[in-house]
Amino acid sequence: MVNQDPQPEVFNALFNNFTITANGATASQQIFTNQGHSEQVLIYAIKVNIFNTDFEEDLYRAMQLQISVGSNNIPSNPFDIGWVASSGDKILNLPVPIAVNFKQPLILTLRNMSASTGAITVAIELIGETMILKR
Fold first, then answer.
1. What is the predicted pLDDT for the residue at 56?
2. Which CATH architecture has domain 7-132?
3. Among 19, 64, 107, 128, which one is most buried in terms of CB atoms within 10 A?
4. Predicted pLDDT of residue 94
5. Pair 82, 61: CB distance under 8 Å
6. The pLDDT value given to residue 119
7. Entry pTM
């Protein structure tokens, strides 16, 4: 329930020990927004950190992220998050916010795009807000 309108939110997804066995290995995780029926979540930015097994930054990893809201992929195609993790602030500001309505599942899917193998940890933060819909 929103205490202020809009209420700032940060949703976290931790892909701990994501084992990479081959090019194209995937892992998915659902994020629960815990919003009410008269509320909407808007996501404005994505922060990405990639670590190796010793929790040292692994900056040059070729990884793709697919964001699914309900039955739609937003954007339509997966995008590279390796360059986001290697940027200075590790944040990708979205040109248009991603809207998540009541009872729409928010699913993040990672895909390895490199030939290297091993285990890594990927921490993703979705930065946005929850607001009350005015009808």
1. 73
2. Sandwich (2.60)
3. 128
4. 94
5. yes
6. 83
7. 0.88
